[in-house]
Amino acid sequence: MASKMPPPRFVRSVLKSFMAESGLEPRHKYDAHANKLRITNAAESKVDFELRITKDHTNRLQILHGGTIASMVDFGGSLAVASMGLYATGVSTDLNVTYLGSGGKVGDIIKATAVCDKIGKTLAYTTVTFWNQNGELAARGSHTKFVAKAWEASPLFTPPDGAEIADKVD
Fold it and tell me: What Pfam families is this protein classified in (predicted)?
């Protein structure tokens, strides 16, 4: 079995798994190899990340699409759960987004902070807050996840055998 990791490396390892195994993240929205999405900080219960906006992320007005933000609430909530030590991050039961201003346009960077507000035996509650390139609040979201089976997957902060492990430095 892999050894226990500090939260930043563990969360980056979960991100690598999302990129390799998920249907949404590896496509254009979260292509880490193109440096579009980047985790900038991770600690227990909190993950900061940013996305460089490309045309793939925009609507017909050429600004960040609300669906991209909604996907990032889902994705960010999962990373917040991972920051609590769960490699398996559960399944969504509820997701809400409030749009407060423009997230940006192509070339801009939108920044986000995902927080695991509470985690129990069956549910995890997360919030994700977004700021545009000018530091203005752009959106906030909440994401509830069913995590009962996730607790059984592996010991806290320990990836399962065979998991791809993130480098120590991003």
Answer: 4HBT
